[in-house]
Description:
The chain has helices at residues 41-48, 124-137, 154-165, 179-185, 198-201, 217-223, 261-272, 289-298; strands at 2-6, 15-19, 29-38, 64-72, 84-88, 100-104, 108-110, 145-149, 169-174, 189-192, 206-211, 227-235, 251-254, 280-285, 304-308. By secondary structure, it is α/β, with parallel strands linked by helices. The strands form three sheets. Strands 3, 4, 5, 6, 7, 14 and 15 form a seven-stranded mixed β-sheet that branches. Strand 9, helix 4 and strand 10 (189-192) form a beta-alpha-beta unit.
Amino acid sequence: xxxxxxxxxxxxxxxxxxxxxxxxxxxxxxxxxxxxxxxxxxxxxxxxxxxxxxxxxxxxxxxxxxxxxxxxxxxxxxxxxxxxxxxxxxxxxxxxxxxxxxxxxxxxxxxxxxxxxxxxxxxxxxxxxxxxxxxxxxxxxxxxxxxxxxxxxxxxxxxxxxxxxxxxxxxxxxxxxxxxxxxxxxxxxxxxxxxxxxxxxxxxxxxxxxxxxxxxxxxxxxxxxxxxxxxxxxxxxxxxxxxxxxxxxxxxxxxxxxxxxxxxxxxxxxxxxxxxxxxxxxxxxxxxxxxxxxxxxxxxxxxxxxxxx
Length: 309
């Protein structure tokens, strides 16, 4: 089968499109014929060697995947060959940037039926990150106020939609380029961070501050005063700590997305009910994945990129 993998960490040039042996599922595993994988910034970091997730080399990136079950390992119940599924794969194992991939059966959920199977690869990790940040780590409840910094990205738009669905009041920072998309996601207030000081624009304290942006630690720390006594600061910026304010009982959490098939299935149901919109903006063939990594190394890539084998 064809796959893209790297034999050593380094720049985008270490990625190789090559022929490898088709894998065989073990106990509790299935083999998927990949419909698509989704590129993530974490894939870029793992390839470059600065994201501390241990992988065995050579490694195939692409931990968000959609596909159809091609073969079942021993002890797999509840799935059959031909089922259309999606998964957030364990990040330390080979991913879906290939024609076939091995997946643990307990990570699989039925794919949404309202969207193309390939596009569904863009859902798992980003939607789970938004959900876990807001509710598992942030404890957000109906009637509370949340400030989402850097809401114009994929996780931010999912976070807005999920927070609004839960009955929260959402304040979002975004650039003019992403303001319309943030508004469409349901934000109650939008702050143009390129023109306005967020500290001045937020006039009433929030219960939860969710940071999704690569801001300086000093700027992040200053924003904590916008959080009420006993509130929560949550951040997805794993390369730096999230500031807190112990004197006011404000705690902080850095989110590391976790596999959760039950919650992923709930997110799929929201897609099929029309309450959540998939954020997939671009498709590329697998052969172009090295070039995409090179593009990502030069700057941020807007939206989710779907990679087709």
